[in-house]
Amino acid sequence: MSCNMDLASRTGADDPGHPASLDETDWRIVRALRADGRSSMRTLAARLHVSRAGVYARVERLQRAGVIVGYSAVIDPERCGYGISAYVHIKISQHSWKSVRERVTKIPEVWHAALVSGENDLVLLIRTRDAATMRDLVLNRLQTMPDVLSTQTVLILDEPRIDGAADEPEIGSAG
User: What domains can you pick out in the chain, each with its CATH number?
Assistant: First the structure.
């Protein structure tokens, strides 16, 4: 595939129902930005052996195509005062997942919420200062919420930092 081909045609930007088709250079840029989203275009160009203009144009096209949707900082929860983390699995009343998800995502201690298949309906990543705060959140805020049938809390015992670029598939394996 030519590197000069318009990314919009390769990514399916005109058809959001189809996954993006990234070439090797696109994947290298994505992996580099996942590892360090603050990298300058100059740094990316030097690291990837691509012209600065080429990197800039590709990043811009990746953003327009919806492949890159934002940038964020990776923080250490413990250094921010969150000493305990847990995954809370929630079983909800049938057809109420949208309203429950909307309510739980407004809780500041909920860092992530996912609709899942299987025995439970939602899985939340919750971080609190201590066990008492976690207990209060689960017992008094989640379990008393309308449409919540049950919860199961799984404490996170260890959470090593994982480099964001490590989980990308090899070129050509995703499609």
Answer: 7-64 (1.10.10.10), 78-155 (3.30.70.920)
